[in-house]
């Protein structure tokens, strides 16, 4: 991320949080030093950076930078028993939702051994990863349905939006390895034998279309744009060359 020239605006907060932890745990800096580095980073990268607006946030990132150890997750395993339990639901959409919650809970346990199978993402984030497009009301109803089936439980605290996954196995036969959480709902569909491809550009799962496209729609657009650019450049080169030839000719 440090080597990247541009960081997506939506990712700047999670980046600063990670960077602060890196500075604390790898570079052994403490609060004042971390704030100084974060401030310098923002000055260099963000043309619209206003130190006054950001001061409180940078301080917050520096304060919590030593709280959790840095960790890198290469992926998580799902067991045969868990997959069987999801298949038993018998509703494609609920299956994707349950599968997504299971993966997120296991990732949560990896990050924090005291997590106890809790998932604390927003409904929007969960449904986006589950590849389910639906209304806010339906989002709540589907979670309630999984609760009725005994697969999840809600947090008892009023202001806690978390969901606990109840069908996770402590141990069990490892069956499916997941290393990409962007489209967990599609990962479930692939496991069910549906026809998806992994994009040659960015690796995301995308539905297989007619023809031989190896790209997702975003990468295909990018690749088409690149081809157009090359075509225009070739055309321009040719034209320039022929104009040079014409101007080099002796007048008749
Ligand atoms: Zn792609």
Question: Could you explain how this protein is built, in words?
Answer:
This protein has 252 residues and is mostly helical. The chain has three domains: 9-64, no CATH class; 76-194, Arc Repressor Mutant, subunit A; 199-239. It is 52% helix and 9% strand. The protein is built from nine helices and seven strands; from the N terminus they run H-H-H-E-H-H-E-H-H-E-E-E-H-E-E-H. The chain has helices at residues 12-25, 31-45, 51-64, 80-87, 92-111, 123-129, 136-148, 184-191, 217-248, and strands at 76-79, 118-119, 152-154, 163-165, 174-178, 196-198, 205-207. The strands form three sheets. It has a three-stranded antiparallel beta sheet. Helix 1 crosses helix 2 (31-45) and helix 2 (31-45) crosses helix 3 (51-64). The radius of gyration is 25 Å and the shape is flat. The relative contact order is 0.09. Zinc ion (ZN) binds next to helix 9.
Which features would summarize this protein structure in a list?
single chain; 252 residues; mainly alpha; Arc Repressor Mutant, subunit A; 3 domains; 3-stranded antiparallel beta sheet; two-stranded antiparallel sheet; binds zinc ion
Using the CA coordinates, give the radius of gyration.
25 Å
State the helical fraction.
40-55%
* Individual helix count: 9
Q: What is the CATH top level name of the largest domain?
A: Mainly Alpha
The strand line-up of the biggest sheet is 2-4-3
Tell me the structural class.
Answer: mainly alpha
């Amino acid at each position: 991320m440090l080597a990247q020239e541009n960081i997506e605006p939506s990712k700047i907060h999670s980046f600063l949080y990670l960077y602060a932890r890196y500075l604390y745990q790898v570079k052994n800096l403490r609060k004042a030093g971390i704030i100084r580095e974060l401030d310098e980073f923002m000055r260099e990268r963000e043309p619209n950076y206003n130190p006054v607006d950001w001061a409180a946030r940078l301080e917050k990132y520096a304060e919590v930078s030593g709280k959790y150890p840095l960790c890198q997750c290469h992926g998580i395993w799902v067991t045969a028993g868990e997959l069987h339990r999801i298949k038993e639901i018998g509703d494609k959409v609920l299956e994707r939702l349950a599968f997504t919650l299971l993966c997120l809970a296991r990732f949560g346990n990896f990050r924090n051994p005291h997590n106890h199978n809790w998932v604390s993402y927003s409904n929007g984030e969960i449904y986006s990863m589950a590849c389910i497009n639906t209304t806010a009301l339906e989002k709540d109803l589907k979670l309630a349905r999984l609760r009725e089936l005994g697969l999840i439980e809600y947090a008892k605290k009023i202001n806690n939006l978390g969901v606990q996954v109840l069908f996770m196995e402590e141990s069990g036969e490892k069956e499916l390895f997941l290393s990409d959480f962007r489209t967990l709902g599609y990962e479930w569909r692939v496991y069910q034998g549906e026809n998806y491809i992994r994009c040659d550009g960015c690796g995301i799962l995308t539905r297989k279309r007619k023809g031989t496209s190896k790209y997702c729609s975003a990468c295909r657009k990018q690749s088409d744009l690149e081809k157009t650019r090359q075509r225009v450049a070739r055309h321009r080169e040719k034209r320039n060359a022929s104009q040079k030839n014409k101007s080099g000719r002796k007048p008749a």
